[in-house]
Amino acid sequence: MGYRLPYKTKQFFFVLIKLSIVVGASYFIYQKLAKNPDLEFHRFIQFTSKNGVFSSKNIIFLLFLSIFNWFLEILKWQNLISPINKISFKNAMEQSLGSLTASLFTPNRIGEYGAKAIYYLPHLRKKVMLTNLLSNMLQMSVTVAMGIIGFSFFANTYHVELDYYSIGRFLIIILSVVLLTAFGITHKRFKLKGFSIERIKIFFSDFPKQKFYIAFVLSFMRYLVFSFQFYLILSLFKVDISYLEAMSVITSMYFIASLLPSIFIFDVVIKGSIAVYLFGILGVNELIILSTITIMWLLNFAIPSIFGSYYVLNFKLTQND
Q1: Alpha-carbon distances of 292 from 22, 119, 225, 288, rounded to whole Å
Q2: Residue 68 in 3-state DSSP?
Q3: Which of 64, 132, 130, 66 minimizes the C-alpha distance to 95?
Q4: What is the DSSP letter of 302?
Q5: Topologically, how does it sit relative to the membrane (predicted)?
Q6: Residue 134: which residues within 8 A CB-CB, separation 6 or more?
């Protein structure tokens, strides 16, 4: 007969885990801001102050866009999870922001899956993780679709020299993944991270279509909000390019960045490098792009994760767990 830890001991260790998550997230945010080799924090503050980016009116409008961005994400999660367990908007906000904090320093936000699942009873957790996978796939599909359109326009307009050898290798990798996935689907016992492909197929095919379509629309609206926010920040730095030109670069940047695996806290570095190269073709100053990427990261990830820390610290572990 195995030894089980007393409930109070489990609670003590769980408090330590919660504190570790919050401290870890705070430390990574500090590291990104204070020790960014590409953009020193004092230089960032001086540059934004000089351009009047952080005036009261600008801050209010930028924060409004960030709140609206996360409002759409929370609404999407509430909509998608409702067939499994109906939750209030407040609960959806707690789960969305709390999981953001918990996943901030995990590769490709993989920690989000476990963080959201732990809010639910054990027999529901696999379905919750699959629902989160569906949510991320919908957002990714919008990013890819918009990225392909934007990059095609960008490449044709500015006659970008493409490395066809690298593109060819990338397509071969994608084709290999598709073939392996197809092979897995034909073999019911093939498993992906503990989930059989057959079970994933059944879950997605049985998922309410109305909920699926609503989530897709919310994903698309969210994409429009944060891409417009990026353009708005560029305009605050007095970058003289049209909305269409900017969107062709912004959509290309998010598309390319989404294909590269990374620890989420370094996502800003990857997007920064890609954006500097793409906007450099249009002659936009490197410091403006790095500052814009940093502001976007602060508004849409760092600040929400701070609010998410409150939910992480107040999360209660049930005695069943």
Answers
A1: 26, 35, 15, 6
A2: helix
A3: 132
A4: I
A5: Multi-pass membrane protein
A6: 80, 204, 207, 212, 215
For the record, the structure tokens of 118 come out as: 């732990």
Collapse the DSSP code of 40 into the 3-class scheme (helix H, G, I; strand E, B; otherwise coil) and give the result. Answer: coil
User: Which of 135, 104, 111 minimizes the C-alpha distance to 308?
Assistant: 104
Structure tokens at 113: 């899956």
The pTM is what? 0.82
SS3 297: helix
Does residue 211 surpass a pLDDT of 60? Answer: yes
DSSP conformational letter for 107: B
Strands 191-192 and 195-196: antiparallel
Q: Give the percent of the chain with pLDDT over 90.
A: 36
Domain extents for the chain?
Answer: 7-158+211-313
Beta-carbon count within 10 A of 285 CB: 14
Q: What angle, rounded to 10 degrees, do the helices at 89-103 and 303-313 form?
A: 110
Alpha-carbon distance 231 to 252, whole Å? 13
Q: How many CB atoms lie within 10 A of CB 54?
A: 13
Question: Does the structure show a pLDDT above 90 at 145?
Answer: yes
Burial of 247 (0-12, 13-18, 19+ CB in 10 A): buried
Contact 255, 237 (CB under 8 A): no
Q: 3-class secondary structure for 155-195?
A: HHHHCCCCCHHHHHHHHHHHHHHHHHHHHHHHCCCCEECCE
